[in-house]
Every structure is written in structure tokens, then in C-alpha cells.
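Progress narrative, work stream C.
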Amino acid sequence: MLILSEESPDLSGFCTQFSSEIKWETADYEKLINGIKNGSCKRFRLTANPTYSVSNNKGERGKVHAHITPEHQRKWLMNKSTANGFKLSDNNFNIVQSKWKQFYRSGSKYVTLISVTYEGVLEITDEELFRKALRNGIGRGKAYGMGLLTVMNIGGEN
């Protein structure tokens, strides 16, 4: 499990619920954040909930729908990239998993959403927007474990 938090969490109680042998560790995220530079390329992974809304012509957002085809799911991420400080080439990322998740939320509300995992290579174009995306996530569904963008250096980079 990977948790991104502004404060270092104490997971000792959480871990003992499952096994006394589970170990946990924390790492300082700021080292990665401070190393972000425009023009650098990173391998990435993102599990997101790609959606769009249909206006009801009353000045309100309208109903939210999931992008269900790989073509629209890919286009969704391409459209999100600029606002989040990176760019993608169409041939530099793939959808590695797409599945529906269904569960009950508190208050007996049934939730259905699509979870799409993308992997590939991106280029950082705006350091501040990219740092914000790393800290805050991308898209909807963050309360359900989606939106976390993880990156790593491409072989040989520091």
C-alpha cells in the first residue's frame, strides 16, 4: 500500500490488524518534488477514473459519465496532461488495466466507477503544475484510491 500524506503517518496500529510481521516505512517526498525539472522525462504510472460530464443546459455541471473505450480513456489523459504540467506522446504510454469497481459507500449509496491504469513515459513541461499533480493527484475518484501519479527516473538519470 502506498500512502501520500502531508504528515508522516503512524501505521503501527494498522499493520498489527493484519500481521505482527508487516513492516512499514516512510520516505520524504520533498526530495522527489524538489528534483522536478522542466524538460526531464520520467516513467509514470497512474490509476485514474477518467470521466466527462454532460451538461443539462441549466448552467450546472450535469451528469458525470465514465469513459469506457480505450480510445476515450487515452484521450482523457492526453487532455489532462497540459493542465498537470506534462506532455505525452501517443506512442509513449499504454493502458495496462481497465476495470469496473462497485461498492457501497456510507449511507447505503451504491458507487460504480471505472479504474484505468496507465503506464509510460512523460515529459515535464511545467514544474509547478507537475508538483501540484504529484501532491494532489489527477482526476476524480481520489477518495477511492485513484488519481495518484507515481514517477521514477528513466535508467541512468539521477
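Work stream C, second folded protein:
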Amino acid sequence: MTEPPTLWQRIARSTAGDDYATTYAERFRAMAARGEDIHGEATFVTRLVDPPARVLDAGCGTGRIAVRLQQLGYDAVGVDVDEAMLDVARADSPGLDWRLADLATFDLGERFDVVLMAGNIVPLLEPGTLAEVCGRLAAHTTYRGHVVCGFGLDPAHLPRDCPVTPLAEFESAMAAAGLVETGRFGTWDSGPFTDAGGYVVTVHTRSQAGQ
């Protein structure tokens, strides 16, 4: 039986059609060709840990961030629930470790120094799964390792028709998973966070060794 489309897939198809995965990848290729910096998330990771630290790109999509991290010397793994996005990632970078899994239930049997969840993954999660996802992120993070999340906080910083996840709701779920906030920024280049900025990048640290 075919699985029903996820919230992300429904939004992506409504804005980019059935070939949304290729369209998404090509948009970033075009930005890079124009000389724009498309590696802010990977650069942010370099300020937290040095290579060859292990990094999990959770919700990796077509693999842009994981590929860059590997180029910088990190041991990067990408996981995503969307087979179409992973097909693009595998075609572009067949040598990297790509995993198909749902962030609310995944269990790779491994832990990472940094777990990264960028690209508005938080508000695009399936309704009612935020707590489970935060728990899974914590379970894949080493003791005193970091979980980094970046996402929009208002419609201007989100895809069309994407619901807003209140920051307080996100923080509550992270705390319940044993993750303590150790940094909050407004941009991937570590600009200051403001309530009116519409975007947040958070760093949480796993505080419990025995989880």
C-alpha cells in the first residue's frame, strides 16, 4: 500500500510539482553558480566541533549540507523520510551514507557529535510528532553532543501553507528529551536572535549520559 504523502510532500508538490526534489536541488545549484553562499549551516557546525566529528543531517533532503560537511572532513550521515529527495542525494553523491527513515521513529543504532536539523524541518514535521522527533534526536546524540535546529517562526520565513511551530512549544519538547539550550541565534552566521526576526537557530546539548 502506498504511504500517504507527508506534510512536506504536499507543500512541495503544491509549489514545485511532482518533480520537486530535482527542482529543490537545482535552486541551490543556481544560487551557488551566482556566487551565493549556500553553506551557512555547514559553516555553523564548524564553529561547534572540529572534523572528523560525526554529524547526522536529520531531514537531509537532497544532501546539500551533508555533502559539504563530508568535503570539510566530517563523518556525515544523511537521513530523510522522502525517497525522492534521497534519490537525488544518492545520484549526486553515491559515496555518502544516506538512510531512509522517519525522524519520529528512526533508530540508527549510532550516536553523533552533532545532530543537525535545518531547512525548516521542525514546522514541516507531521502534526503531533514534535515530542517524538526531539526524543529521537536526543537518542542519537553523544553525551555533551549538540543538536542544532534552524527554522522559520512566521509565515514570511516558511514555505507557503506551512504551519508555524511556536518557539516555546519546540523548547518544551527539547527540554523533555533531556536537551538543554546552550545557544540561540537569528541566522546561520550566528547573528543575534530577536523576537521580530522571524527565524531561529538553536543549539541544544545533551545533558544526560544514561539516555
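The chain has a mean pLDDT of 96. No further action is required on this item.
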